[in-house]
Write a structure and sequence with these properties.
alpha+beta
Length: 455
C-alpha cells in the first residue's frame, strides 16, 4: 500500500544504536518496527503517517464513545501497528483486504476499552482519621477503612490465588505511595469505557476536580495544600537548610501536613450539613465520568473546579491569580480576552446576585468591578511576560485572598444552580440561557417576597 515502507539488507545499519538512529532520521520512518534477526525495518513515510492521522481522526469522530475513551495518538498508533502487522506478513495485500483486517482488530481492541476499573488514588488529605465520604462518584476513605469490600478480588477459583497475590502487591504499592508523602487517605473512583491509560488519567482528573470542589465548599486555608500524592502537592516534612558565610549552619523544619489545622469534629459536622453543595458537585462529576445531560455546562464547572484546585496548590501569588482567573474564564466561557471582564461580571451578577458596584473587599474597600478588572489585567501581564512571574509582588493591589473568596463562592453556587436548572424543564446546554434562567429565578423569588409583604 502507498506510504508503507520496508527497508532491508545493506540499507539497514545495525552496527550500533547511534548508527541506526542516524539511519532512521535520514529515512524518516514513522511508526517504525525493527526486526533485528532479519535486518528489516518497516514503517510509514511522512505522507503515510499523515494519512493515518486523518483516518484516526475520522474514526474517533464516527464513534462518539471513542472521543473520551481513547486519544487521537492512541488510535493512530493502533492503526499503524495493525496495518504494519498485516503488511509485514503480506506486503502485496490489497487495500480492501487490509481494511477488513484492520476493522476486525480494532473491534477486538474495543473489548479492552469497554472495561470498568476501580481506581485507588493515594491523596494527602487529613492527618487524622475521619468518616469516609463522597463527592459524587469520588469517595474519600482513610487507609485504615480501605479493605477488600472496596475492590473485587479473585474472579474464579482457577486464578483466585494469583488474584489475591496481585491484590496484596497492589495494597503494598498503595501503602508505599502514601508513606512517601506521609499521607493517609485514598480516593476511590470507578471509570468505565476508557482505554487503560485514559482511564488512569480520567480518574486522576476526577480526584483533582473533587478536591477543588471540596476546597471551594469548605473555604478554609487549612485545606489549601491537599492533593494527589502523584499530583501537585505541598512540600512538607522537610528541612530548609542554609550555611551562613561566618560558618554557622541553620535549618528550618516544615512539618505541617495538609489539613493539620482542621478540626475533625467540625469537619464531619460540615459534611453532614453541606449535602446540597456536595450533591450538586457530585452531579457535575458524574457527568464528567459517565456523560449525561448538559455536557457543556458540566464540563465548564469541572474545569473551573480543577483550576481552582491548581490555584490552591500554587506557591507563587502571580501564578495563583492567573489560575484563579483561568478558573473563572473556563466556567463562564470567556473565549476572547477582549470583554472578558464584562462576561465574568455578568456571570457573577447572575449567579451570586452581586452588582458590579458592590463593595466586596475583605482587606480594603474594593468593588466587584475593580476586583475583576484588576484580576484580568494581572493575569494578562503575568502570562504575557510584561510582569515577572518569580516575584512576591502582584501587578495590582487587590489581595489574592479576596479573589479566591469570590471564585470559590461562584464555583459552589454555579453547581447548585446548575443542578436546579437540570431538574426544572427542558433547557439548552449553553451558558447564556442558563444565566438567563438563573436571573429569572431570582426575579420570581423577589416578586414572591414583595407579594407576601403587601398582603
Amino acid at each position: 500500500m502507498e506510504g508503507f515502507c520496508r527497508l532491508a539488507g545493506d540499507a539497514l545499519d545495525l552496527s550500533s544504536p547511534m548508527k541506526f538512529l542516524t539511519w532512521n532520521d535520514k529515512h524518516k520512518l514513522h511508526h517504525a518496527s525493527l526486526n533485528v534477526p532479519e535486518r528489516v525495518a518497516t514503517g510509514f513515510s511522512g505522507q503515510g503517517a499523515l494519512a493515518l492521522r486523518e483516518l484516526a481522526r475520522e474514526l474517533r469522530r464516527a464513534n462518539p464513545t471513542w472521543e473520551t475513551a481513547v486519544t487521537l495518538h492512541q488510535v493512530e498508533a493502533k492503526l499503524a501497528s495493525v496495518l504494519r502487522t498485516i503488511l509485514e506478513a503480506a506486503p502485496e495485500t490489497e487495500t480492501g483486504v487490509a481494511a477488513a483486517g484492520v476493522a476486525q482488530r480494532l473491534l477486538d481492541w474495543t473489548v479492552d476499552i469497554g472495561s470498568t476499573r476501580r481506581h485507588a488514588v493515594p491523596i494527602a488529605f487529613l492527618p487524622q482519621r475521619a468518616t469516609r465520604f463522597a463527592i459524587g462518584p469520588v469517595e474519600f476513605v482513610h487507609r485504615e477503612d480501605f479493605g477488600q469490600a472496596d475492590v473485587k478480588v479473585g474472579a474464579s477459583a482457577s486464578n483466585a490465588n494469583s488474584a489475591t497475590e496481585r491484590h496484596q502487591f497492589a495494597m503494598e504499592r498503595i501503602d508505599k505511595s502514601l508513606a512517601t508523602r506521609g499521607a493517609h487517605w485514598i480516593a476511590l473512583v470507578t471509570v468505565s469505557n476508557r482505554e487503560a491509560d485514559v482511564s488512569v488519567a480520567t480518574a486522576n482528573n476526577a480526584v483533582d476536580i473533587a478536591l477543588g470542589a471540596l476546597q471551594a465548599m469548605v473555604g478554609t486555608s487549612g485545606l489549601n495544600t491537599i492533593g494527589r500524592v502523584g499530583g501537585r502537592l505541598a512540600n512538607w516534612d522537610c528541612f530548609d537548610t542554609w550555611f551562613e558565610m561566618d560558618g554557622q549552619t541553620a535549618f528550618r523544619r516544615n512539618d505541617d501536613p495538609p489539613g493539620f489545622a482542621i478540626d475533625i469534629g467540625a469537619f464531619e459536622k460540615w459534611l453532614a450539613e453541606a449535602h446540597p453543595a456536595r450533591s450538586a458537585a457530585g452531579q457535575c462529576l458524574h457527568a464528567f465520568l459517565a456523560g449525561g445531560p448538559f455536557p457543556r455546562l458540566n464540563e465548564a464547572w469541572c474545569e473551573a473546579a480543577y483550576w481552582f484546585h491548581e490555584a490552591m496548590a500554587e506557591h507563587l501569588d502571580t501564578m495563583r491569580i492567573a489560575r484563579l482567573e483561568t478558573s473563572l474564564e473556563v466556567l463562564l466561557r470567556a473565549e476572547k480576552s477582549s470583554g472578558s471582564a464584562n462576561r465574568i461580571l455578568a456571570g457573577l451578577e447572575a449567579v451570586l446576585g452581586i452588582d458590579p458596584s458592590t463593595n466586596i473587599g475583605v482587606v480594603r474597600s474594593v468593588t466587584m468591578r475593580e476586583l475583576v478588572e484588576e484580576m484580568v489585567r494581572s493575569r494578562s501581564r503575568v502570562l504575557h511576560g510584561t510582569w515577572p512571574t518569580l516575584t512576591s509582588d502582584l501587578p495590582g493591589t487587590i489581595p489574592v485572598s479576596d479573589l479566591a473568596a469570590v471564585v470559590r463562592r461562584l464555583i459552589v453556587m454555579f453547581a447548585i444552580k446548575l443542578e436546579q436548572y437540570a431538574a426544572n424543564g427542558d433547557h439548552k446546554d449553553d451558558l447564556a440561557p442558563f444565566l438567563t434562567w438563573v436571573r429569572g429565578q431570582a426575579t420570581k423569588r423577589a416578586s414572591t417576597v414583595v407579594s407576601a409583604e403587601t398582603k
